[in-house]
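Let's practice the habit of predicting before peeking. Look at the sequence and jot down your guess about where helices and strands might fall. Then scroll down.
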Amino acid sequence: MRSEVHYLQLAEIVHPRGASASPLLRLQVGSHYATNGSQGHAAIILVYRASKHRFERIFQEIFGGNMNQEARYIASGPLKGAMITVHPTDYAPYGYWVAVHRLTPDYTYKQVLRYRSATIYGDGNPLAVIDSEMPNIQRRLSLWTTGQPLPLPAGRCPRPRLIKQALWCS
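Done guessing? Here is the structure:
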């Protein structure tokens, strides 16, 4: 991270290829809050390389916390094992850079998609950017097409619909 790590926010073992395959150690760490109210975060994934008798970092993403930035591990569904990241753009209309990183057969992560979001900052959509962009993500990766049921976020989504290509649930 750009600043010191102060908090271990999450530590979990994940099994992106099932219980019989090698597990990964997923960590999220954070820094103290900065004067502007933002907190630095980092998402890190490690794999144990038995041949080398050590853990190896195979994914790391650094992001802030006050502009809807996120790095999310996908635990189930057609993107199981992927890491999806969103970072704000630097110019109007303020949207997000969405990137999908897939786990390779040799247990490294490779970016397979990057695009500018349909979701824009301050649009009033209460969904997280990754959730509102999931139809776009899956469509761009040929995992979803118009006419199929919308890929919905976990939890309640009373009236799912696309507005300007972004998922809304209200």
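How did you do? The first helix runs from residue 129 to 140.
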